[in-house]
Write a structure and sequence with these properties.
mainly alpha, binds fe (ii) ion
């Protein structure tokens, strides 16, 4: 991603925050991300979706657009006509909060490094990559909840959506009590399933991986 694209994405991110989030603490959270973290320059992953500078911010915007589309086109009409298991609609503010900040746990954790592989002629060549160096290893969704909550108070359904956004990816190694909590969280609010779905669709259908 070019420096111009990174700047455009940062501006789009800030403008989404100001347009959709009116809660106390949003400015402090944005200031923290801009001045104390690499959130706007970091990749989205070490070697998968948007593994390039600026990937994390772009991914967060992609999840927001996907979540909003899924909700307004599919779920909200069913809540309003009474055929959804959920009776209460979800606010656009909650959608923006969970989507834009679900992966703040990744800020300050991917360190640029030199990687090596053999070229077509069997000669070793180096290429730029990332390695994980997490100074606050508190869990994935768990850490995002804590970091956001330092600045911006989160509603219960937002905490649940962010905490469980890795969904089934975390379940194979989970204890049965954890699996029960995950199921119960999805019955609490449509936001919990919607964030998982939007994250999966954005990561796998909208975002490329750079191959070296
Ligand atoms: Fe995530
Ligand atoms: Fe994500």
């Amino acid at each position: 991603m070019s420096p111009e694209e990174i700047t455009r994405n940062r501006e789009a991110f800030e403008s989404c925050c100001h347009q959709y989030i009116q809660r106390n603490g949003i400015d402090a959270l944005l200031e923290y991300l801009k001045t104390k973290t690499d959130f706007f320059e970091a990749p989205s992953s070490t070697s998968f979706h948007l593994n390039e500078p600026g990937g994390l911010c772009r991914h967060s915007l992609n999840v927001f657009e996907t979540l909003l589309t899924l909700y307004t086109s599919l779920v909200e009409p069913r809540i309003e006509d009474g055929t959804s298991p959920f009776a209460d609609t979800v606010s656009t503010e909650s959608i923006a909060v969970v989507a834009l900040f679900h992966d703040v746990c990744k800020a300050n954790t991917y360190r640029p490094t030199e990687r090596w592989k053999k070229d077509a002629n069997g000669r070793w060549m180096s290429y730029p990559g990332y390695e994980v160096n997490d100074s606050f290893p508190f869990g994935h969704g768990e850490k995002s909840c804590v970091v956001i909550h330092w600045f911006l108070p989160l509603r219960q359904e937002e905490l649940l959506a962010i905490r469980w956004h890795m969904g089934m990816f975390e379940m194979p190694d989970a204890a049965s009590s954890t699996r029960r909590s995950y199921r119960a969280a999805m019955e609490h609010s449509p936001l919990v399933s919607l964030l998982q779905a939007a994250d999966l669709v954005a990561s796998n259908c909208l975002e490329r991986t750079t191959k070296y």
